[in-house]
Amino acid sequence: MNRSYIKKLDLTVCALFSLLLLSCVQEPVQNGLGGYVNEEDYQEQFVNSDAIDIIQEVVEMDTIQLDTSFIDFSNEMIDLLAANELIELSKHFHPQKRCAFVPYTFLSDENQEFTTNSFIKQFDLDEKLMWGTQDGSGDSILYTVSDYIKTYVYDIDFKTKSSDVHINGNLAFSNTLNNISKLYPEAEVVEFYYDGTKEYEGMDWKSLIFYIEKLDDVYYLVAIAHNQWTI
Fold it and tell me: Reduced to 3 states, what is the DSSP secondary structure of residue 102?
């Protein structure tokens, strides 16, 4: 092998190791953009969490290329929810897998799943549906589409009030098991996290989670989950 190439590769690996060591003392990825995520934050989080994989890729390819376009997609979805553009939102549901709505991060047969057409139809009918079971009381979650969105999706303005955004890991923890990533192992995951109020010592925290998959080079929602403190 060419000695100059080996030298270049060694320098690249050494530089990457230095970057990884510095990243260990960085603060967690902060939102800081009123609910938006940006690509630099994602690059930082990627470096923080996948050191061995990155080094292996450097050795094999001498370059690292990350597809971060799903971040733009998640920002788009937040904009649509903030504007209550629910029909437009439904146009981004996965055409084959549909989009599941999960009130407490555990996806079950009780939860609703929609195609674009079935969502629009149900939205127009304005009938109450069974979406799952309420935490604590065990009562059925019976809402129209628009009321469910207001209660179990966009119950606060995540676009402006999110304090953190978590990408593909480090999701907020509650007492409810999260099985969604196991059901959608190929999904990119973006969580918009609101840390609650001083009045309730943060116990009123909430998060909105998008599960995103690509089909034919287009991103779609396969699940929208809501998380909060549970009993």
Answer: strand
- State the amino acid at position 79 in one-letter form: D
Structure tokens at 97: 């897998």
Gap between the Cα atoms of 61 and 50, Å rounded:
16
Q: What are phi and psi of 134, to 5 degrees?
A: -70, 140
**Residue 175 binned pLDDT confidence (cut-offs 50, 70, 90):** low
Query: What count of other Cβ atoms lies within 10 Å of the Cβ of residue 156?
Result: 14
DSSP state of 83: T
Domains of the chain in sequence order: 3-67 (no CATH), 70-228 (3.10.450)
Predicted model pTM:
0.72
DSSP lists the bridge partners of residue 13 as: none
pLDDT digits (tens, 9 = 90+) for 71-112: 999 999 999 999 999 999 999 999 999 999 999 888 889 899
- pLDDT tens by residue, 112-121: 999 999 999 9
Distance between CA atoms of 102 and 111, rounded to whole angstroms? 6
Q: How far apart are CA 205 and CA 227, in angstroms?
A: 8
Provide φ and ψ at 213, rounded to 5°: -125, 155
SS3 letters for 111-130? Answer: CEEECHHHHHHHHHHCCCEE
User: Residue 152 corresponds to which tokens in the numbers above?
Assistant: 């179990």
108's tokens: 């079950």
